[in-house]
Design a protein that fits this description.
Elements: H1 5-11, E1 39-41, E2 45-48, E3 51-54, E4 57-58, E5 70-71, E6 74-76, H2 84-96
Antiparallel strand pairs: 1-6, 2-3, 4-5
């Protein structure tokens, strides 16, 4: 599916998330036995002549979790990230070379 930039902008509000608090995960306390981990992905778009395209990656076949699957670039939260937006940006740089200034 190809979508043009104006349609995307009309249907989605593109802005940095605000008000995220790690403490808000308390509402998920009943899921503690599942060993949930904070993580984030980057849903990146590339503008081409035919429209916007979404950036996807293919996970390596040797990985323990989700080997060979198609995914958004992303990964687990690290304390140095401070917020999940930084997690997504860091992982995108590590996995596909997109720098935060790009």
């Amino acid at each position: 599916m190809v979508i043009d930039k104006s349609t995307l902008l009309q249907n989605f509000q593109l802005q940095m998330p605000t008000g995220y608090h790690r403490e808000s995960l308390g509402r998920l306390a009943h899921l503690e036995s599942l060993k949930l981990r904070e993580a984030a992905v980057l849903i990146g778009f590339v503008e081409r002549e035919q429209g916007l395209q979404v950036i996807l990656t293919k996970r390596a076949e040797h990985l323990k979790h989700h080997p060979g699957q198609i995914s958004f670039p992303g990964g687990k939260f690290e304390d140095d990230d401070q917020v999940l937006v930084n997690t997504a940006l860091r992982e995108a740089e590590e996995e596909i070379g997109i720098h935060q200034t790009d």
